[in-house]
Amino acid sequence: xxxxxxxxxxxxxxxxxxxxxxxxxxxxxxxxxxxxxxxxxxxxxxxxxxxxxxxxxxxxxxxxxxxxxxxxxxxxxxxxxxxxxxxxxxxxxxxxxxxxxxxxxxxxxxxxxxxxxxxxxxxxxxxxxxxxxxxxxxxxxxxxxxxxxxxxxxxxxxxxxxxxxxxxxxxxxxxxxxxxxxxxxxxxxxxxxxxxxxxxxxxxxxxxxxxxxxxxxxxxxxxxxxxxxxxxxxxxxxxxxxxxxxxxxxxxxxxxxxxxxxxxxxxxxxxxxxxxxxxxxxxxxxxxxxxxxxxxxxxxxxxxxxxxxxxxxxxxxxxxxxxxxxxxxxxxxxxxxxxxxxxxxxxxxxxxxxx
Amino acid sequence: xxxxxxxxxxxxxxxxxxxxxxxxxxxxxxxxxxxxxxxxxxxxxxxxxxxxxxxxxxxxxxxxxxxxxxxxxxxxxxxxxxxxxxxxxxxxxxxxxxxxxxxxxxxxxxxxxxxxxxxxxxxxxxxxxxxxxxxxxxxxxxxxxxxxxxxxxxxxxxxxxxxxxxxxxxxxxxxxxxxxxxxxxxxxxxxxxxxxxxxxxxxxxxxxxxxxxxxxxxxxxxxxxxxxxxxxxxxxxxxxxxxxxxxxxxxxxxxxxxxxxxxxxxxxxxxxxxxxxxxxxxxxxxxxxxxxxxxxxxxxxxxxxxxxxxxxxxxxxxxxxxxxxxxxxxxxxxxxxxxxxxxxxxxxxxxxxxx
Lengths: 355, 355
Description:
homodimer; alpha+beta; CATH 3.30.1330.10; Phosphoribosyl-aminoimidazole Synthetase, Chain A, domain 2; seven-stranded mixed beta sheet; four-stranded mixed beta sheet; 12 helices
């Protein structure tokens, strides 16, 4: 089917004609003057940042490849830039950190329009700026297809970072938002109008709105930075991770690193009602989306039972859905799901990039 | 012609069979326990570093693509890993910084042998460890061909970093080592035995040694970290850059950022004697290698005339060739070469990744 987004990747002069240094100058203009934390931005051999005393530095990177992590058919260049920043901001959120600055390695086909790199850059800045993070540097090379690798530097009070290790038996397991929507969004990118019409009938919304909403779950994730900061500032969480590979697989990392067992309750899992209807139409168990590979960039975390009310208050204060979904128990490291009928299933999987 | 290096990329089980998380566990084992500056290494959502008070953080990244920055025909996996770290260490050297920790984004064909990622990892660690830098994290994805993107964090005394801006009229221009050898090494990777035999006759060395030496200039560069630190600790340099794109083009960046003109003297340029003989055999002006696109990762820097003796003493102390190659003058930003015959040539070029 035709895509309304492909045209955003075409037209105008190419980056090859502009050249590497012309493109760097153009990006520097878009970035503007450096912020207080940034001593030296793009244009030198490296960027310079100042980290205040008493804070640790948080470093993370995530590479996005055309055709593997995103398709020009279903995302605009600005969305690709914003998403490349957001997946890293989400790692900072999972540590409870404050973003400071990002670097970007760009691999660009020389025929790529300059308008595309302009939009990519705008997307990076649009995702970074609201959190006070600068685009501090990077490097550019020619490539067969688009590569966007963002490194994010953030800061967190020394010794206070949220880690995957730290969950203890008796803790409550929480998740923000409605995991699984990104997987459903990815699965339905190429869905035809008939599907959306049938879904619209079931849930009483316009087909175009539904299509747009599910695409955005995949194309325009949101990093839960405010939640991460709340958890650090209130010492509310014992362990945390962002759901970049899928809730089940990511909680398995927490279980592994903490040396605990996590029991999820099916009845407690937040399942978006539209996801249930969509699953019925496609013959997919919505739990496969909720627990399986899905890059929602929600926060999954554990908290001592005494902090549970504080966590629920956080959800209200931030206008953020936060659901208790299970508990931490002693036992072999792993995750299991207690079904409504009392039976238990081991939860495995999540996304493996090499398989 | 056949390559003795290609076999180092073949054999044994693949990373696809091992899976992403098996591979991450394997890399963590190779890395060992974290150093003092590293609060938290690989295995969480991000790495945690502590930056001492009074130091700025230096951040740089550089992406290396198979077929574009390196060829499996002429480099071993360990060399690719070491070089990916070294090109970033060289940026730290150009800022006068002390390396702290690196992240690596790996794009891996699922069929790639695990032995190759083992060797890549060993190369990264072999390049980082002597400078006290840890491998602190990263991410892994599947890709069509090998991608290695390293981000390096380093530290430098606040306000003391060497920058491209800062050169002033009257300063002396210096360069370490013998730039151009990497370009000659790249140009002769596929050269046949006859060339090396003829060169050997001219310079009185064994053909195999010459071939190996020029390949290493391309495949195994060295970052001039000790020189960068000497220049910062002794406040000896007014501006600095590493010669990653070529001496002429990189000095043009210094001229541009400093708003000065740089006059190089042909008679002063350090030209490796073997490079002159090789140029004669290939019909190449060796100056094209010395000034043009060549990724030697030497340091080019400017210093006030009063510091010139200190700079030459640095060369002796570090057993490092350091040559004064020209001077900084007032005038339109740019670089020119004064030939032995008294004429002048504008120096342009250097490597543009998009052209």
